[in-house]
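Continuing the batch. This is chain 6 of the set; chains 1 through 5 are on the previous pages. Same settings as before, nothing changed between runs. Recording input and output for traceability.
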Amino acid sequence: MVSQQQVADPPPPGGRATALVTGVDTPLGRDIAYSLAGSGISIAAQSYSRVPATEVVRVITAEGGIAVPVVADLSVEGDVERALDLIEDQLGPVDLLVNNTWLPGPHTAGSPFLEITPSDWRRYTQDNLLVLHMITQRVARSLERTGRPGAVVTVLSGAPVPEASLAQHFLRAVVETFTHAVGTDLLRRNIRVNAVRARADTDLQLVTTTALNLLFGTDTRRVIDLDPHPRPATETHPSAPPSRKAQPVTHDRTPEKLDPEMLAKYRKISTATLATRLFAIGLRQQYLVGLNPVNTSMEGFVGEAYTMRFIPAREDIDTLESLHGPDNLQWIGVEALEEGQVLVIDSRNDISAASAGDMLVTRALHKKAAAVITDGAFRDGYVLADIPIPTYSRAITATTRLTSFHVADLQVPIGCAGVAVYPGDLLVGDRDGVIVIPRHLAAEIVDECLEQEELEAYLHTRVHNGEPLLGGLYPPSEQTKAAYAEWKLTQNGAVTA
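Output for chain 6:
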């Protein structure tokens, strides 16, 4: 049941944004409410019992803030409706929803898989997803009705992942999928839907800043990891044998820049040499097969991946008018490019329409991007051929992107030409094409690849002089390698192809 208790004579909102923070009976929810209130946001504080909500309101109003308590069972549709009606009457429409309420699991929900009963599994997963659906939908409908931009932020909080139950793991994964799907659907209505991974010891100012950035449109990420103590993947599976595949792969969307000296070495290495070395350590296909340089006068590039994901277009969404809106993700992505990054577009290997044209590529040039790549097609090919930035595609077409593609996300793992590309991965391009090097392997293999490049330059010289491949020249025998080492000493380490 929704409580009708309210703050006595609350001051009028006066243009202030309003946030509904659910789950203020938890330390994280309570502190998020305090932090947002400290940023000048009016707070609707929800809990399932009266005391936590009224205590949060008391603290906020004592500091001069504006807040109302909302005591409601968000798993009951009628309570959700009455709660939002109460908030809108007292504070105005909700601009920011912070989902932080999670129903506790039934008796066996925290048990190992073989011990969870079907009824407990259903109650835990379905009830929590129902709460998320109903409150998100009600707030989104209000925002659409009023024409106001807004944001929904779901806080995925709780125990560190290794200690979380199987049901918690499952629920978090489903909520992130919900966030991606609903976020894409509501973005055209100027409503941002995002999830934040946080824990009780996460810096609350960071959570607040993230929520406000999402509300005011300065953060385009869909799922944001604020966990201050991430655990390597190998620690979650202690029984896994040590191997290269067990090494943790991080998906940090804003990783530290790679070492410039290492990048300079990669500029001396061909994609062919890199492909062979990656194959030797178990990565069979990292080359973007079928992509060709549009500007054939460019020598190549080295840079870190900035990813853009396409999904099929839909006629009611992807119109010419959509290009002019503030939520044109393609323009947002280009403006977010940093010097030395490579814009990598997942066009689903579809060449039926252009992924980009000369306007986008020229802007990327002025942003000092290293390259622009698509596994689909570009338009304005004759112009791109003269723009001094490396561009790679499968084809050229005049057809506009809107006929086939919708830009769904930025800086998420994508597939490009059948190869997985994670934000921050290293890409190396030459006049043949492009190869992707997993970020965590870049420093490990560079010196070996540079040495192989120099060895092959030496071997090429001998082949050019007429020597046969058979007999240990190529691949080089130990005798050939020894001859190379002696020759290299006479060259003072300098090898020219």
